Here is the input.
Amino acid sequence: MIIEGLKSHGSGNDFLIIDELTTNLTFTEQEREKLAKALCDRGRLGADGILFVMKSEQADCRMRVFNADGSEASMCGNGLRCVARYANDALGLDKMIVETMKANLLVEKTKDIYKGIPTFKVEISPVSFNVKDLPLIIERETLQNEPLPELHSSLLFSALAVPNPHLITLVDSEILQSGLQADLSAKVNQPNELFPDGVNVSFVKELEPGSIYVRTYERGVGFTNACGTAMSASSLVTCSIGLNELEREISVYNNGGKVKCVVHFDEKKQTYSIDLIGNATYEFKISLEIDKNQPEQFVILEKQKFEEETSLYAKLQDEVQTYLQTAL
Ligand SMILES: N[C@@H](CCC[C@H](N)C(=O)O)C(=O)O
Here is the structure.
């Protein structure tokens, strides 16, 4: 079969978009898993995941996210911005609802985060601090800026599902530069008693009022340039502990760029939601010939780069990296 794919990224978190919305492509569950493993392999094409954009009966379109290891995730914030742009181009809707595994989410085109960079705002919700929703197996109902001695003797952790699972801790430069995050992340993402389904692990550093840096080890992938749901969850955690404020834009720096988050609290429903605002950049169009039974044998027939937008994004990335060299 021939797949016309599109490689895109949100803050350098990169995905191959496969269109089942405007084409007749369709896959079995096993084929999706195998495709993700084969195409995300950095030795070949390479990506953090695959985003399948599909028809939906309850929303304008549907997104399914497969991590590089072939596992399916319930949500992907950076990926949702890429899907928002893709569906916006395909359906001509600046504002739409995207069905995801656990929620139908509002996405919309918004003011460029940096001159000339296509920017989308996506809703991150539902949010739960109940450890059962990750799941995290401990004797308490929540873990909010508290020790988790089974994992580390002194760090304070917050666990939340947005709705994919996140474990977040605030650290200083010394801890950030140590190998601790890699060690802890490896522990909770291999068979273990605390997080039976694994968890995305973020180390967060406060930079200046209204600005934070977030680095994430993603379940099913490893360290990525950025993780959108992790940056949203981290913004909420910094509001809960009084570092940032609800309803105020937070600048979230990451190794692949920068996004903005706004954390909302609905008094009536007693629920949180987060707006994640950032780039949705196309890298290249690609035409692949694939045997569904042996996807690792795929052949690249054609590749067309989006030169202008990738070089514009490189400017934002340069500015961010220069800032981080002194800020971290
Ligand atoms: N990169 C994503 C999250 C992708 C899923 C995650 N690895 C998981 O398994 O939960 C994002 O931008 O949110």
Observations:
- Residues 319 and 325 are 10 Å apart (CA to CA).
- The mean pLDDT is 97.
- Helices lie at 29-40, 77-91, 173-177, 180-188, 228-240, 307-327.
